[in-house]
Design a protein that fits this description.
149 residues; 2 domains; 3 helices; elongated
Length: 149
Amino acid sequence: MAYITVGDIRDEGVSDSQYTDGHIEDRITLAQEIIELLTGRFFEAREDQSFKLDGTGHNLLWFTIPPITASSISSVKIDDVEVDSDDYEFFTRMGQDWRFNPKLRMLYGIWPKGKSNIEIAGDFGFVNANTGVDPPVFDAPPLVKDLCK
């Protein structure tokens, strides 16, 4: 799913006579790829994603792409063995935007040090979440949308 639509570009004053919808869609795709390359993040909700991470040897595990909500991590495995969800928590600090520094805290012990030995699965993306509607709507932050335009 694109961060913006052809309609968003048309609303900026770009007419059909200037550029075709196909051309605008290609430019949106390119802009989105550049944004993701430069930030190391994606700004759309992607369901059923899985990431392999290096164990840290302590109780916090940082990762780049935040879950779309604090509860959208579906499973965590250490060396292919599922960790009980009561053994870890998605760690946030009051007043901070957790999307910039997502991490899991192991409540009983540590994340064993290792190379790609931790797997996190769930729904991820650096998105704004409107959970007050059914179904919830997740979209790119306004700054990212403007940059994409």
